[in-house]
Amino acid sequence: MLHTRPLHPGFGIEVVGLDLSDPASDAAVDQLVKELDRHSLILVRGQTLSNARHVGISRRFGDLMTHVLKQFLTTGLPEIYVLSNVTEDGKPIGNHKEGWNWHSDLSYVAEPSMGSLLYAVEVPPVGADTLFASMHLAYEALPPEVQASIRHLSATHSYAGYYGKAFADREPLSDEQKARTPDVVHPLVRTHPVTGRLSLYVGQDIIKSVNGLPPEEGNALLDKLNRHAISEEFVYRHKWRQGDLIIWDNRCTMHCATPYEDTKYRRIMHRTTVAGTRPF
Ligand code: OGA
Ligand code: MN
């Protein structure tokens, strides 16, 4: 039996009294796998996870993906993608300013991630909250005529386009990285493959164009949908503590990092990314 409490009226639960470092918690993890479909986001606080255990738990959700930015896979386990402002021996140990815009993870590949498990190794005392928005709630709140007008539209997601905007001050992507991330087309409204529930599938910076509409009209629509999608009523703001683990469903949520005093404080976050299937 899991002990849970809600995080937001419409989605997200906290599970309490669970020690995920204990191998005996595997059965509970398998319950979390099921709960994720229903609640979209699960918080478990106060954990002490080794990298191996983090990966082990994550594997119970599915196969794991490795990030195209290999320079940030620095823990010795390639399944762990590090987000951090910390440098060691002059080299960043993780990607700083990753996710400082609304997105769902790996929407830029043909089979985007179904879920991510983000573990807080070291966090600043203030700032660096992460915002999570339910795309089920966002879609369901749209007027029926808007739902009908976007239901069969698709959009082109571009990692190269995103990278150029988000990390304009860095070395551009290598040819190999570009080859691994060609533009892909996904529906604007997707169906949760387990529950059948619909959600908006949008994002800032990552979407290059809406297909079948003149660019201006497509961009205006995207703007409108993105603004709607992150309305306060669909958003849960998480204030991290060291040892927090959040598991979210990339098929029906978006998230966004918020800034912190990155010259004063250290932040180290470890993410595993579970493979998904083609959105429909
Ligand atoms: C991620 C992400 C946001 C944050 O881990 O995928 O976007 O606040 N993180 O670190
Ligand atoms: Mn992310």
Automatic annotation (TrEMBL):
This is Taurine dioxygenase. Keywords: Dioxygenase, Iron, Metal-binding, Oxidoreductase. The lineage of its organism: Bacteria, Pseudomonadati, Pseudomonadota, Betaproteobacteria, Burkholderiales. InterPro entries: TauD-like_sf, TauD/TfdA-like, TfdA_dioxygenase. Residues 4-273 form the TauD/TfdA-like domain. Belongs to the TfdA dioxygenase family. It comes from the Bacteria. GO terms for molecular function: 2-oxoglutarate-dependent dioxygenase activity; metal ion binding. The keyword Iron applies.
